Amino acid sequence: MVPEGNNQRNIERFSGYGDTYDRYRPAAPPLVTSLLTGYLQRKPELVLDLGCGTGLSTLVWKKHADQVIGIEPNDDMRSVAESKLEQMTDAAHIRFMAGYSNQLAVGSETADIITCSQSFHWMEPASTLLEAARVLKPGGIFAVYDCDWPPTLYWQVEQAYEEVINRADGIIREQLSQEKQAVKRDKEKHLAAIKDSGHFRFAKEIVFHHAEDCDADRYFGIAMSQGGVQTVLRLNPKELDEDIKRFKQVVDDFFQERTLQVLFSYRMRLGVR
């Protein structure tokens, strides 16, 4: 049973493309673990990663925490994470479990760090923050971090990316009633939500960047891994055919079979309990 405050459509939005998501999306950069461990001033005993998806933001803690739990309500996404974990060695301290951000199956004051990577905007903020405050130890850290899309490379490529994403979002608005659409909250309000909750003695925003190698296939794939595009591909794939073709052509023409560096820009909003 889905706990009150959770939107089933938000969960279903991520069904059916776990492999695509995992192949193209960036893993959490190393700076995430060093920043949060620095704020904690010790190695965390327990890290919870909420809305962990395919584990891209969970497995980075392998060498940096005594115990790590990735919590994900979508079965498809979580199955990809579990498959990766099965292939890893020295990872008995990591596990994935089904669950919801506002109803965590862990004891009070047990976690040192709770993270939400690319996920808090799909959660009900008030009940999630209340539950995080229950689970965190005094001095524990709640950290939400998101990547700005598209990755920084070249303006014409980025413009083409935004056009296909905006087209997908427009199709959803046209063809799905509001009751059938997922509810995406404004990321710019994350810090205010943390501050206004009253659960945290300190809150701030941190911005940072991470460079990665990228070829045309990956840049194209990042766009295809976006939930809005995937929703349209399930709903009526022909609606996006021409837009996707145009985008792919722009990407291929720019990369010319090269591997280039792209810049992922992150915004982290954190609170200290």
Automatic annotation (TrEMBL):
<dbReference type="Pfam" id="PF08241">
    <property type="entry name" value="Methyltransf_11"/>
</dbReference>
<dbReference type="InterPro" id="IPR051052">
    <property type="entry name" value="Diverse_substrate_MTase"/>
</dbReference>
<dbReference type="GO" id="GO:0008757">
    <property type="term" value="F:S-adenosylmethionine-dependent methyltransferase activity"/>
</dbReference>
<protein>
    <submittedName>
        <fullName>SAM-dependent methyltransferase</fullName>
    </submittedName>
</protein>
<comment type="similarity">
    <text>Belongs to the methyltransferase superfamily.</text>
</comment>
<dbReference type="InterPro" id="IPR029063">
    <property type="entry name" value="SAM-dependent_MTases_sf"/>
</dbReference>
<dbReference type="GO" id="GO:0032259">
    <property type="term" value="P:methylation"/>
</dbReference>
<keyword id="KW-0808">Transferase</keyword>
<feature type="domain" description="Methyltransferase type 11">
    <location>
        <begin position="48"/>
        <end position="143"/>
    </location>
</feature>
<keyword id="KW-0489">Methyltransferase</keyword>
<dbReference type="InterPro" id="IPR013216">
    <property type="entry name" value="Methyltransf_11"/>
</dbReference>
